[in-house]
Amino acid sequence: MEQPSLKQIWQAILGEAELTMSKANFTTWFKSSFIHNYEDETLTIGVPNGFTRAWFENKFSKEISQIFHKITGNKPKEIKYIIKLKPQENQASQSFLESGPVEKSESSEKIATETKKEKPIDSAYNQACLSAGLNPRYNFDSFIVGKHNELAHAACWAAVRKPGETYNPLFIYGGVGLGKTHLLQAIGHELIKAGKKVLYVTSEKFTNDYVEAVYHGQANSFKSLYRNVDLLLVDDIQFMAGKDGTQQEFFHTFDQLHRANKQIVITSDRPPRSMKAVEARLITRFEWGMVADISQPDLETRIAILNTKCQQKQFSLDREILEYIATNINNNVRELEGALNRIMGFCQFHNQEPSLMIVQQVLKDFFASIQANNLSTPQKIIEAVANFYNINVSDLLGSSRKRELVGPRQIAMYLLRIKVNASFPSIGQEMGGRDHTTAMHACTKIEKDLISDNKLKQDIDQISQSITSTY
Ligand code: ADP
Ligand code: MG
User: Fold this and answer.
1) Position in ligand 1 atom list of the atom nearest CA 308
2) What is the pLDDT of residues 57-92, one digit of tens each?
3) Ligand nearest to the CA of 204
4) What per-residue confidence (pLDDT) applies to 54?
5) Average pLDDT value over all residues in the chain
6) What confidence tens digit (pLDDT) does each residue in 359-369 have?
7) Whether pLDDT at 332 is above 60
8) pLDDT (tens digit, 9 = 90+) per residue, 389-411?
């Protein structure tokens, strides 16, 4: 068999890595990375920036080494990282055996776009995207619109056309892997093109930056960074729950930007009203502008998404194969992409045309792992409830009769009953050794309350969704 090229090896590593990743952003940086060379048992990987290098070093060196070994039979003694933009396709597709250092050329300063047809993006724009924290792939062109996301998509375009005017803030919510980050960043791309100052952060990064700034006595530079932008994109705001200091700072950032008619766009896994441990004044503000949801794509849209992704990757799959994948993966676009990467990696590596049989074979484990992931277990249910109400699992299972614990505790017992069909004694057991009559009482109570309490129903729906959509 022909030696695989460095690019093919990297493709296979990506395919594997995709399965273990939870953050879209990380996918980004992984994808703008590449194998620079392999010499003297040293594997050198090109990464776009120091941030990505730190991620690789801390989280993925071991995995990369293992997968590289599996594919090539060579075990790298060392993995090094250099900061370098991804070279053009022709340079990256050197044979593995011929690989020498890739010459730095003018074109290597530009990021290779995913398809050869696309023009390389100019580097000033590219630099602006990187410093704004944007993934080059997450733009409107690569975003497919279906019924499940058309409202959110339209609202995002409205924010692009009249930033700070039409919908401010714009609040987008929905489950994991449904395209929130992609849409959020697409707004960023458009406004960078319009010459605006854009900043994308996850709420965790905002929190970390804030804590660091305070710690180092640099609160002012933090403020000037976050309060002097035209567009602030805050991803996964739910992680700000319970962080009072950060929320307070965010409140002031928000107000200052809002007063200056600067656009703010926020994403979350749930609507503002369902957010727990978030200040009421923030929740009120989240609802000032527009709240739009993204739901799960229907079968046709899933096929369309797969089809477009194939075209982008210049990879072709028969309709019957697309249908097969889209039927088996029904609640998460990231998983659709993961499946596709796996098939591509396999076919390129073995130099085979994809057939339905091959695809079924390749995806067998993948489906099994998705299923296992989506399966509710008592542990997952308990964690999801604790997470949703922002309380500790030990408090949820403990004996305190505080109101803010009793309600969630009953909900957890109810969910154990309906999701895993647990018996009352075993529910009692799971819930910190309670009596079976307590479990029975909880389930009856929640069932009764559900008839008239819409808010409760919404909460329970959200929790159920989070159980099946976490990684
Ligand atoms: P979320 O932030 O909601 O968890 P992401 O925005 O990270 O989801 O999306 C997960 C993956 O699925 C990304 O690679 C993204 O590009 C892709 N994706 C999601 N929705 C779409 C869509 N409508 N069109 C194209 N790609 C999509
Ligand atoms: Mg996201």
Assistant:
1) 25
2) 776 788 788 878 877 778 899 999 888 777 754 333
3) 2
4) 72
5) 85
6) 999 999 888 87
7) yes
8) 999 999 999 999 999 999 999 99
Q: Which residue has the least CA distance to atom 7 on ligand 1? A: 24
The ligand minimizing its distance to the Cα of 469 is 1
Alpha helix ranges (H) inside 195-234: 203-215, 219-227
Helices (H) and strands (E) in the chain, counts: 22, 8
Q: Is the dihedral of CA 372, 376, 382, 385 positive or negative?
A: positive
- The bridge status of strand 34-39 relative to strand 42-47 is antiparallel
Helix 436-452 × helix 454-469 angle, to 10°: 120
Q: What is the distance in A from the centroid of ligand 1 to the CA of 411?
A: 31
DSSP 209: H
Distance 30 CA to ligand 1 centre (A): 16
**What pTM was estimated for this model as a whole?**
0.69
Kindly identify the ligand whose nearest atom is closest to the C-alpha of 135. 1
Tell me the C-alpha distance between 47 and 54, whole Å: 10
Distance 180 CA to ligand 2 centre (A): 5
Atom of ligand 1 nearest to the CA of 149: 23
Residue among 334, 335, 340, 465 to mutate when testing ligand 1 (max atoms within 8 A of CB): 334
396, 397, 403, 404 alpha-carbon torsion, rounded to 10°: 0
3-state secondary structure of 265: strand
Q: Which residues form the pocket of ligand 1, taking CB atoms under 6 Å from any ligand atom?
A: 24, 27, 138, 142-144, 149, 174, 176-182, 305, 333-334, 337
**Cross-sheet strand order for the sheet of 78-83:** 34-39, 42-47, 78-83
Q: How far is CA 34 from CA 9, 80, 84, 111, 142, in A?
A: 10, 12, 9, 11, 22
What is the per-residue pLDDT across 112-152, written as a single tens digit (0 to 9) for each? 333 333 344 467 888 889 889 999 889 999 899 999 999 99
Q: What is the pLDDT of residues 172-183, one digit of tens each?
A: 999 999 999 999
State in Å, rounded, how far the first CA of the chain is from the last one.
36
Residues 210-257: pLDDT tens digits? 999 999 999 999 999 999 999 999 999 999 999 999 999 999 999 999
